[in-house]
């Protein structure tokens, strides 16, 4: 549960946090990846429109989500998959620094594609959105 709380905090939005509060496991991760892709798409727009301040805000949002996902990895239970995701998140964060410094849309497109692939993989693990409402909440 502590991992989920850290991930929720990293998303940085009251509306998103209230939506995420009822989510569990793969559903939470799916929602974070959806937010991450949306933030990366918005970042691309800010770069193309040369909106420096908005770009910086969006880079920070992308970093917070990535760091939240990375900090929620369970290396004991996740084993090699968790280690691979940790390496991927580190790579994306390094490339994001490059994107921010050089307004490199091509590099942003590369890492956005990687994130979309992982998001799509999580979609195969997550129940359909309507299933969340039908799932009773477990007591804490």
H-E order: HHHHHHH
What is the number of beta strands?
0
Name of the CATH first level:
Mainly Alpha
Which architecture would the CATH scheme give at its second level? Up-down Bundle
Radius of gyration: 15 Å
Q: What is the CATH homology-level superfamily?
A: Flagellar protein FliS
Strand content: under 5%
Give an account of the 3D structure.
The chain has one domain: Flagellar protein FliS (Four Helix Bundle (Hemerythrin (Met), subunit A)). It is elongated, with a radius of gyration of 15 Å. With 140 residues, it is mainly alpha-helical. Helices cover 83% and strands 0% of the residues. It contains 7 helices and no strands. Helix 3 packs antiparallel against helix 6 and helix 4 (52-71) packs antiparallel against helix 5.
Compact overview of the structure:
The chain has helices at residues 2-11, 14-20, 25-48, 52-71, 75-102, 105-125, 129-134. The protein has 140 residues and is an all-alpha fold.
How are the secondary structure elements laid out?
Layout lengths: L1 H10 L2 H7 L4 H24 L3 H20 L3 H28 L2 H21 L3 H6 L6
Helix pairs in contact: 1-3, 1-4, 3-4, 3-6, 4-5, 5-6
């Amino acid at each position: 549960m502590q991992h989920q709380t850290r991930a929720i905090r990293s998303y940085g939005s009251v509306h998103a946090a209230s939506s995420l509060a009822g989510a569990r496991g793969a559903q939470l991760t799916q929602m974070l990846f959806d937010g991450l892709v949306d933030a990366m798409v918005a970042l691309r727009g800010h770069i193309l429109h040369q909106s420096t301040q908005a770009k910086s805000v969006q880079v920070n949002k992308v970093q917070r989500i990535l760091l939240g996902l990375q900090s929620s990895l369970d290396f004991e239970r996740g084993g090699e998959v968790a280690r691979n995701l940790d390496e991927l998140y580190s790579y994306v964060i390094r490339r994001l620094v490059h994107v921010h410094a050089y307004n490199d849309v091509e590099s942003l497109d590369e890492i956005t594609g990687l994130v979309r692939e992982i998001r799509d993989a999580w979609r195969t693990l997550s129940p359909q959105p309507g299933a969340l409402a039908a799932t009773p909440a477990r007591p804490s």
